[in-house]
Design brief:
- The chain is an all-alpha fold.
- It has one domain.
- It has helices at 2-10, 19-34, 39-49, 54-70, 87-98, 103-114, 120-135; strands spanning 13-14, 84-85.
- The longest helix has 17 residues, at 54-70.
- The protein is globular.
- The mean pLDDT is 94.
Length: 142
């Protein structure tokens, strides 16, 4: 019974229903665990976006680097094979989905995620990632 409570606490959210959000989550998990130059993350974005993969890939790398540089603590990321999401992953995908329609909500979530007040630079990186997915016909939705 204790294992179930721990699993539910560590991974409280189901995977997103949006296939584009799942692609973003995969790239976030791979780059978070294996570094910004992870070949599987790059290959996945290449497969999904075709010849226009560079913009989403470079912007995702920028976002991940900004998150790592500005976070006051660690950001919990689950392994790629995990069928559930951490609260931090859920917040990050919500930020990407809400950037265009609810920027203040995204700002508050980013501030909570990073544990700092000044999040403008990281928020700009998140907006660029969201726009790169949307511009290629793959908007990230919650």
């Amino acid at each position: 019974m204790a294992e179930t409570a721990t699993l539910a606490t560590a991974l409280p959210h189901a995977l997103p229903g949006c296939p584009h959000a799942r692609i973003a989550l995969f790239a976030i998990r791979r780059m978070g665990a294996h570094g910004l130059a992870d070949a599987r993350a790059a290959h996945t974005l290449f497969t999904v976006f075709g010849q226009d993969f560079r913009r989403p890939l470079v912007l995702m790398r920028t976002l991940m680097a900004d998150l790592a540089a500005h976070a006051a603590g660690q950001i919990a990321i689950a392994p790629c094979c995990c069928a559930r999401m951490t609260a931090a992953e859920f917040a990050l995908l919500t930020i990407l989905a809400q950037m265009e329609i609810a920027p203040e909500k995204a700002r508050f979530l980013m501030s909570d995620l990073l544990g700092v007040r000044r999040v403008d630079g990281v928020l700009a990186s998140a907006a660029a990632v969201a726009a790169s997915f949307a511009d290629e016909g793959r908007p990230i939705t919650a």
